[in-house]
Design a protein that fits this description.
mainly alpha
Length: about 400
């Protein structure tokens, strides 16, 4: 550490330390794909706020401000990614080869898709409808293609390259396979804006196929996580927050089913459209029950880890986006059933989302100021062991 930085730390000028850390004066720092989870966690607040069955009309400005913040974060992280790709190519290559970090390559496409959804829900108030719709289409296409690639490539490497132990399964394994579910949700929102006829129907069924792709893969992984918890317990470390990721595909699938059920009318023939409307309820209500179960389990396991001095890490952002999907999912149930139960359940999840975001944002800001979040992760026992034998 040079003398100027020592003096900066000694004087406690946090803003100088922050500038030193993020401007590149310290070339030891790095930003990985896991940072895009902060965009997901921020953007979902805007989307959840706009879809609340109660009070949403009073929070329009708040939703727009949060969406703008998420857009700024997405652009900033994209520029940082470009910097590393051109100036420190080995960083992202190393992340791709790292068994833990590679799982988070699903975060960038989900970040883009989350912002795309916000453009449709609130962004049009600032940008105008045409520009917002164009941005949504572009981000949806990018996110869909990148998300499908993550759903194929990362599990393939898990099967063929990474060596795993019996206690390896963790919530991060869901990250590569959840993007198609987010694509299904945002794509469903775009269905009414596609050309009528074959193109619109094709987009609808493409979205529903992405729903199945993600949900079936997620169910397998969730079962593996349950098995790991039953046989090996929790690590008690910063990996515990990733258990909340389980809520992601569950809440997002409720959201996707609800929106697909809504847009089916006017897109499909009468009988299939009616079936999709029914599916939104027949599927969503049982999943809502499991969401309640897993939420309770995740809270208890997180409190247990907290009492064991779990340290802050970027995995804390796992508290945000998955809970946000539960807000939008229960809001869809409220829309399709008209029951106050689901309306108020979405409000409770929304309050939890705001609290989770505050904790994650505070910890991240503090870590950025001190600089320790920018440092390469130190060597630690990994739940996934390097690579398989050739």
């Amino acid at each position: 550490m040079n003398d100027n930085l020592k003096n900066t730390h000694a004087k406690g000028l946090w803003w100088k330390r922050f500038f030193y850390n993020v401007t590149g004066a310290n070339f030891d720092y790095e930003v990985g794909p896991n940072w895009f989870a902060s965009v997901m966690g921020t953007g979902i607040i805007a989307n959840a706020t706009a879809t609340l069955p109660i009070f949403s009309n009073r929070l329009t400005l708040f939703a727009l401000v949060v969406w703008c913040l998420a857009c700024s974060m997405l652009i900033g992280l994209f520029l940082a990614t470009v910097f590393f790709l051109f100036h420190r190519k080995n960083v992202w290559v190393r992340h791709f080869q790292d068994p833990m970090m590679a799982q988070f390559y699903g975060a960038p496409p989900m970040a883009a898709l989350t912002v795309a959804g916000g453009a449709l829900l609130v962004g049009h108030q600032l940008l105008g409808w045409d520009l917002a719709l164009n941005i949504a289409w572009i981000l949806w296409i990018i996110g869909t293609v990148a998300g499908f690639c993550s759903a194929v490539i990362i599990p393939y490497r898990l099967f063929t390259v990474f060596q795993v132990r019996p206690d390896s399964a963790f919530g991060g394994w869901l990250m590569p396979v959840v993007p198609p579910m987010v694509s299904a949700t945002i794509g469903a929102m775009l269905v009414p804006h596609a050309p009528a006829g074959v193109v619109r129907e094709t987009l609808f069924y493409l979205c529903f196929s992405q729903f199945g792709l993600s949900m079936l893969a997620a169910l397998i992984i969730i079962a593996m996580i349950w098995s790991r918890l039953a046989h090996h317990g929790t690590s008690g470390t910063s990996r515990v927050p990733t258990l909340w990721i389980v809520l992601g595909p569950l809440g997002q699938s409720m959201t996707a089913a609800g929106i697909l059920g809504t847009v089916a009318v006017g897109t499909l023939p009468e009988k299939p459209a009616f079936g999709f409307e029914l599916f939104a309820v027949f599927y969503g209500v049982p999943v809502f029950g499991y969401v309640l179960l897993w939420t309770c389990l995740a809270i208890l396991l997180t409190l247990r880890a907290h009492h064991r001095n779990m340290r802050f890490a970027l995995t804390y952002w796992a508290f945000t986006f998955p809970v946000g999907t539960c807000v939008t999912g229960t809001a869809q149930l409220a829309l399709h059933t008209g029951l106050p139960l689901f309306a108020w359940a979405s409000i409770l999840f929304y309050l939890g989302l705001l609290a989770a975001w505050a904790v994650a944002a505070f910890g991240t800001t503090k870590g950025m100021i001190t600089g320790h979040l920018f440092k390469p992760p130190t060597a630690a026992p990994s739940p996934i062991i390097s690579v398989k034998d050739p």
